[in-house]
């Protein structure tokens, strides 16, 4: 197998800290907004357990990827697929990365489309907007894409995005501090969770959460735990979505190898990954807890009361919106990098870096995502299915089977503990995938599909 030249030369210049920022930014995206729903369904205890399990598994799968890339000296996910299974392996990895990351980017721009107009409205103190163009989310998505995302996406290296990633992460930290349970009684934040939940899971049955107050039994912690146990037995449809949400939230695997390529001391990548995952683990738990406490820790009457008493010009809420908007906007370029690389690998293998191609792919991708978000928001429901298939592939199945094929038998025989562990890991991925898909199908066949409801 010939290795494209630019993967052989490792002249990383990016520092350790910048790489942590970049990977942290890649992990944290819209997934964070779906976590409160996951916690509400799974209960605090089971949620924490699952969060821990997914974080540890995610770090283990990065270990598998790094070991493979160390052995063959390639630092591209698709090339590992090629080395393990030839062209089908490369295509499978490339397609999974493309679908997963386009889904993630669409969800980020979706947030821009619906939140940016509200921020502008609050800034300008427009009480009765009369169709001004700057209040139109579609125009705003295009402007943000051209003015902010495109220039960043055109950078030659991911390392240059370290500063924006650091800034984006501090915005999310601010979001966490600001969105304390006492503040998070705003319908808008609540809709984030529901919207993301729908986006990720393609289910509208759960939009009934819009019709608060929540049923009284939700307050009961014991109920929640029991509900979780049921879900483990696959009897509670709602809880079955917990794992796809968590898996989506921890996906950063397409970005790992590109960041690794640019890391100055390349042996340290596992540390970079562990630190980023640990920090995100804490932030995810806090975000979920705060969101959850707000949904269910409030008395119903007060919730209803809050609906009518929202002050759209509240400075803190405005800041929270700006923070979330900034964070997700700055994540788009990071998530775009691996897609461009995957497309390059699939369509122009063995070609070296070429500026016009680099720019053209970014432009076409961004245009496509813009069109999706503007004209076909309903199609985004499809990403529920994609999330349920591509995330387990990228986190569990591919790293494990690539590892089994790539690590030579002389070094680790097929029956060695490492390879058996990797095989179990792949099996777990299949289990997750089948489980998530069957719940989505159950939801569809029970007539509550998202496409039908036209959200
Ligand atoms: N990078 C991704 O694919 C998703 C990211 N982990 C998120 O939470 O949005």
Number of domains: 1
Count of separate DSSP helical elements:
18
CATH level-four homologous superfamily name: Amino acid/polyamine transporter I
What is the average per-residue confidence, as pLDDT, rounded to a whole number? 77
* Ligand kinds: asparagine
CATH topology: Amino acid/polyamine transporter I
N-C termini distance: 47 Å
Q: What Rg, in angstroms, do the CA atoms define?
A: 22 Å
Major sheet attributes: none
Secondary-structure arrangement, i.e. CATH architecture: Up-down Bundle
Contiguous runs where pLDDT drops below 50 for at least 5 residues: 1-9, 182-188, 194-237, 297-309, 449-455
Strand content: under 5%
Global structural class: mainly alpha
Q: Could you give the order of the helices and strands?
A: HHHHHHHHHHHHHHHHHH
Percent helix: over 70%
CATH class membership: Mainly Alpha
Taken from the alpha-carbon principal axes, the silhouette is globular
Q: Tell me the total number of β-strands.
A: 0
Overall description:
By secondary structure, the protein is mainly α. The protein has one domain (31-198, 233-446): Amino acid/polyamine transporter I (Up-down Bundle). 73% of the residues lie in helices and 0% in strands. The chain contains 18 helices and no strands. Mean pLDDT is 77; it is low at 1-9, 182-188, 194-237, 297-309 and 449-455. Bound molecules: asparagine. Residues 26-31, 100-101, 104, 248-249, 251-252, 335 line the site of asparagine (ASN).
């Amino acid at each position: 197998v010939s290795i494209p030249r630019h993967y052989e030369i490792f002249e990383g210049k990016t520092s350790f800290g910048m790489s942590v920022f970049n990977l942290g930014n890649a992990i944290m995206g819209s997934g964070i907004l779906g976590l409160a729903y996951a916690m509400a369904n799974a209960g605090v205890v089971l949620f924490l357990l699952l969060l821990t399990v997914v974080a540890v598994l995610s770090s283990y799968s990065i270990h598998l990827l790094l070991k493979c890339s160390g052995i063959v000296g390639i630092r591209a996910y698709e090339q590992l697929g090629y080395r393990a299974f030839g062209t089908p392996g490369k295509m499978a990895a490339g397609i999974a990365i493309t679908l997963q990351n386009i889904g993630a980017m669409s969800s980020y721009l979706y947030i821009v489309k619906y939140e940016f107009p509200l921020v502008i409205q609050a800034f300008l103190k427009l009480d009765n907007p009369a169709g001004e163009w700057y209040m139109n989310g579609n125009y705003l998505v295009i402007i943000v894409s051209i003015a902010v995302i495109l220039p960043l996406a055109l950078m030659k290296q991911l390392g240059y995005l370290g500063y924006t990633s650091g800034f984006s992460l501090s915005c999310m930290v601010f979001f966490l501090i600001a969105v304390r349970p006492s503040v998070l009684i705003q319908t808008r934040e609540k809709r984030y969770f529901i919207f993301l939940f729908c986006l990720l899971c393609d289910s509208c049955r759960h939009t009934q959460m819009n019709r608060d107050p929540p049923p009284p039994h939700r307050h009961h912690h014991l109920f929640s735990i029991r509900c979780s146990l049921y879900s483990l037995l696959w009897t509670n449809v709602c809880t079955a979505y917990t794992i796809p949400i968590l898996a989506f939230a921890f996906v950063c695997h397409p970005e790992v190898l590109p960041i690794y390529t640019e890391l100055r001391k390349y042996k340290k990548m596992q540390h970079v990954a562990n630190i980023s995952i640990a920090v995100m683990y804490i932030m995810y738990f806090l975000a979920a807890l705060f969101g959850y406490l707000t949904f269910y820790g409030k008395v119903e009457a007060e919730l209803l009361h809050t609906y009518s008493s929202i002050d759209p010009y509240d400075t803190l809420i405005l800041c929270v919106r700006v923070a979330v908007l900034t964070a997700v906007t700055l994540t788009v370029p990071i998530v775009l990098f691996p897609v461009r690389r995957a497309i390059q690998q699939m369509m122009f293998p063995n070609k070296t870096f070429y500026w016009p191609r680099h720019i053209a792919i970014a432009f076409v991708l961004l245009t496509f995502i813009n069109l999706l978000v503007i004209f076909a928001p309903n199609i985004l429901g499809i990403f529920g299915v994609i999330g349920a298939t591509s995330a387990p592939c990228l986190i569990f199945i591919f790293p494990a089977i690539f590892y089994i094929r790539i690590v030579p038998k002389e070094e680790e025989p097929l029956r060695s503990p490492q390879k058996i562990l990797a095989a179990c890991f792949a099996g777990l991925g299949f289990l997750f995938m089948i489980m998530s898909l069957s719940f989505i199908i159950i939801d569809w066949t029970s007539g509550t599909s998202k496409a039908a409801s036209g959200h």
